[in-house]
Design goal:
One of its GO terms (biological process) is intracellular protein localization. This is Beige/BEACH domain protein. It comes from Ancylostoma duodenale. GO terms for molecular function: protein kinase binding. This protein has seven helices and no strands. The longest helix is centred in the last third of the chain and has 12 residues. It is extended, with a radius of gyration of 20 Å. By secondary structure, it is mainly alpha-helical. The two termini are 33 Å apart. It has a domain of 69 residues.
Length: 160
């Protein structure tokens, strides 16, 4: 990890490095200027949203793009790529993907998917009395080393 005193020093260092970055895969030039863009600028200058809307790329590719410009990587367990949990039906023998009820309401966070969960987290937040710790809805971040390692131990290896 590097800590530079100012943006000008960052720019000088970047211009000494070979051109790398998210590049042409995401509709961006592989240039030093691209390397200096913020995540918001990368998203704005990319054509990935349009490609996704036109169904030219998969949901996976679009989510990987979002994870990449957000700084997430397979090389850091604390910044591992995240994907939304979208299914709700885990009991049927077969899953009909044309039935809307089989999918989660993505307008709500996981903690508010049912009224009882929403009430639980809201009650904890509103009744919080600790003066040293600010009130919170959720006690942990959704992507931690422990969660990532637990998932990686259970998933089938890419090389399998």
């Amino acid at each position: 990890m590097f800590a530079f005193p100012d943006q000008e020093t960052v720019r000088n260092v970047v211009y000494q490095l070979p051109r790398v970055g998210v590049g042409v895969k995401y509709g961006l030039p592989q240039s030093r200027k691209t390397s200096l863009m913020t995540p918001r600028q990368l998203f704005k200058h990319s054509d990935m949203c349009l490609k996704w809307q036109k169904r030219e790329i998969s949901n996976f590719d679009y989510l990987m793009f979002l994870n990449t410009v957000a700084g997430r990587t397979f090389n850091d367990l604390n910044q591992y790529p995240v994907f939304p949990w979208i299914l709700t039906n885990y009991s049927s023998e077969t899953l009909d993907l044309n039935v809307a009820a089989n999918f989660r309401d993505l307008s709500k966070p996981i903690g508010a998917l049912s009224e009882s969960r929403r009430k639980f987290f809201q009650e904890r937040y509103t009744s919080w009395e600790d003066e040293t710790i600010p009130a919170f809805h959720y006690g942990t971040h959704y992507s931690t080393q422990a969660f990532t390692l637990n998932w990686l131990m259970r998933v089938v290896s890419y090389g399998y």
